[in-house]
């Protein structure tokens, strides 16, 4: 006989008040509903209710991975520093990499991701193209020493992640593996009840050439994304867009105009009575080699540091002292007459513009009527800005829209980045040694839990989708002193459990209001309410948590009705 869970035995210490440290709805509700507890900054324990949901998310992930032929395994969390040094990431990953050393003073990393470990695993074992393709995955705890752990499970130092790695003989095979994973990830989001969009992304610390993130749309999302009705979507760090700019004021010749104290774009635009897109913003940086560079972008757009890093390497913004030493005037930098040794690059959106309003490289002065090619010549025209709402879609030209998103998963095409670095090769059909073409794929399991709550909640608590709910049905006995109520509630709970439904039975000697409030707070999809009057009339009340709809059902039909509802929702 299947067992239901008595609420009197459940370890779920609820909170009546919102925790002071909780900023996001997911953090607040998971704490209040007794699902997680903070152990240290960015480190949380998953209590029984949350753990049940985590296991259901993992089950969905496993089913989708197994369906595309990926094989589950488990690697150690610890990986030796030598592997990371071999790939070049020991010194590049940064302080987010948690490093430990053993009693013999040997260095190890607590894995934030496992490219090195999996590549090392297969080198020397996969020797022939006949053994390819291969996809391996694991679900495991990961570690990242975040500078500012915050938002509960959204950005922690310890988290649960599914990571997978594909190994192929050629680029076409890698693309096929990548596409299969991307499709599986879309299904995982859908089955978890998430409203998520795949967006073109920057590949960050992982590396590789092509990457897509699955973003759960939420106002509290950390990432800004742009999207179009045609299906194009990208995060602001990677988005391409058609940027429209206005022409600056002035005539056919350059004019020097006094602008006392007007170093900010908004002030300059107001002074000349032009839109900010008619101004040209100058950003001064030191490139990866320490050389001064000035970048010019439209005044109404932000300089995109991720895009710039791909061109200029590990650059830094110039401080006041560095500006002075380079001969640059803070707030009034422009492309005309730059000091010797300062390189100039302009955003590609400005290439066709013929009348620029720019700083004069002189305190309290701007220039109007500046013309590229006549008054200055940049070293290159680059994509240097973040896309905004209203910019043109790069695929269809229609205006882009903005939203916030929570990254729940990401897929990467790594190519030979790690296989070459770690000398992981196989013999092709002609017997030649070639490096594997690799892909890397991650699902933030614990972050997915938080993202679901962030999307699915109201003023009363969590609204779990059936597929990931810790319990699908809550049976509430409103009077534990009435034998007929207790008997009916226990019978319904037992029959539902026997029918394969995940049931929690509120058998506590509490007021009805407390039981209703906590059932809503914990978010069980369906509530079956057994009260004295209803039981006497042969009925109980069925509540749909998501819609708030309440209706009476007969005691004889209640189990069949709920089995059908839960079954439909699972599918």
Q: What report would you give on this structure?
A:
The protein starts with a strand and ends with a helix. The chain is built from 14 helices and 32 strands. About 1% of the residues have low confidence. It is α+β, with helices and mostly antiparallel strands. Strands 4, 8, 9, 10, 11, 12, 13, 22 and 25 form a 9-stranded mixed beta sheet that branches. Helix 2 packs antiparallel against helix 5. The protein folds into 3 domains: 269 residues, BirA Bifunctional Protein, domain 2; 128 residues, YbaK/aminoacyl-tRNA synthetase-associated domain (YbaK protein, Alpha-Beta Complex); 100 residues, Rossmann fold, CATH 3.40.50.800. It is globular and about 95 Å long. Strand 12 and strand 13 form a beta hairpin.
Number of domains: 3
How confident overall, as mean pLDDT?
Answer: 94
CATH architecture heading of the largest domain: 2-Layer Sandwich
Briefly, what CATH class of the largest domain? Answer: Alpha Beta
**What percent of residues are in strands?**
25-35%
> pLDDT below 50 for ≥5 consecutive residues: which ranges?
205-209
The CATH topology assignment of the largest domain is BirA Bifunctional Protein, domain 2
Discrete helix count: 14
Percent of residues in helices: 25-40%
Oligomeric nature of the chains: single chain
Largest sheet: 9 strands, mixed
Radius of gyration: 29 Å
Tell me the total number of β-strands. Answer: 32
Annotated CATH homologous superfamily of the largest domain: Bira Bifunctional Protein, Domain 2
The assigned structural class equals: alpha+beta
Categorize the overall geometry.
Answer: globular
């Amino acid at each position: 006989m299947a067992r239901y869970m008595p609420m009197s035995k459940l370890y779920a210490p609820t909170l009546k008040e919102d925790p002071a440290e909780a900023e996001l709805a997911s953090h607040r509700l998971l704490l209040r509903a007794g699902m997680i507890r903070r152990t240290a900054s960015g480190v949380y324990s998953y209590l029984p209710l949350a753990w049940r949901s985590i296991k259901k998310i993992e089950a969905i992930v496993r089913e989708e991975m197994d369906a595309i032929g990926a094989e589950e395994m488990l690697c150690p969390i610890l990986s030796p520093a030598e592997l990371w040094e071999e790939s070049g990431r020991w010194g590049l990953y940064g302080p987010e990499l948690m490093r430990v050393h053993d009693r013999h003073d040997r260095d190890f990393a607590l894995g934030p991701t496992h490219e090195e470990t999996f590549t090392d695993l297969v080198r020397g074992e996969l020797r022939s193209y006949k053994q390819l393709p291969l996809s391996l995955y694991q679900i495991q705890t990961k570690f990242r020493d975040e500078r500012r752990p915050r938002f509960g499970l959204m950005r922690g130092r310890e988290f649960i992640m599914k990571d997978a790695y594909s190994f192929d003989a050629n680029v076409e095979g890698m693309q096929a593996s990548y596409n299969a994973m991307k499709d599986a990830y879309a299904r995982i989001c859908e089955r978890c009840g998430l409203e998520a969009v795949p967006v073109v992304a920057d590949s960050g610390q992982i590396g590789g050439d092509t990457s897509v993130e699955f973003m759960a749309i939420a106002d509290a999302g950390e990432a800004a994304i742009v999207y179009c009705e045609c299906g194009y979507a990208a995060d602001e760090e990677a988005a391409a867009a058609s940027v429209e700019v206005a022409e600056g004021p002035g005539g056919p010749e350059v004019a020097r105009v006094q602008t006392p104290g007007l170093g900010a774009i908004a002030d300059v635009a107001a002074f000349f009575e032009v839109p900010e897109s008619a101004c040209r913003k100058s950003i001064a940086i030191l490139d990866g080699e320490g050389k001064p560079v000035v970048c010019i972008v439209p005044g109404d757009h932000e300089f995109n540091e991720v895009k710039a890093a791909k061109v200029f390497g590990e650059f830094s913004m110039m401080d006041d002292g560095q500006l002075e030493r380079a001969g640059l005037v803070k707030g009034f930098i422009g492309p005309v007459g730059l000091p010797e040794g300062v390189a100039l690059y302009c955003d590609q959106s400005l290439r066709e513009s013929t009348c620029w309003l720019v700083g004069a490289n002189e305190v309290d002065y701007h220039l109007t009527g500046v013309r590229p090619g006549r008054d200055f010549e940049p070293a290159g025209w680059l994509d240097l800005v973040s896309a905004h709402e209203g910019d043109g879609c790069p695929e269809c030209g229609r205006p882009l829209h903005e939203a916030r998103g929570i990254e729940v998963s990401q897929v990467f095409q790594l190519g030979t980045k790690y296989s070459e670095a770690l000398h992981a090769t196989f013999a092709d059909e002609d017997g030649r040694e070639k490096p594997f073409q690799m892909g890397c794929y991650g699902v933030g399991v614990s972050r997915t839990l938080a993202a679901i709550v962030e999307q699915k909640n109201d003023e009363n608590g969590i609204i779990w989708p059936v597929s990931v709910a810790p319990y699908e049905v809550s049976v509430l006995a409103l009077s534990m002193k009435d034998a007929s109520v207790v008997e009916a509630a226990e019978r319904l709970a037992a029959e539902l459990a026997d029918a394969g439904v995940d049931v929690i039975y509120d058998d506590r000697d509490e007021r009805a209001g407390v039981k209703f409030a906590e059932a809503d707070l914990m978010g069980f999809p369906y509530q079956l309410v057994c009260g004295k009057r209803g039981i006497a009339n042969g009925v109980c009340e069925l509540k749909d948590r998501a819609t708030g709809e309440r209706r009476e059902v007969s005691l004889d039909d209640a189990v069949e009705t709920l089995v059908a509802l839960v079954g439909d929702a699972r599918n």
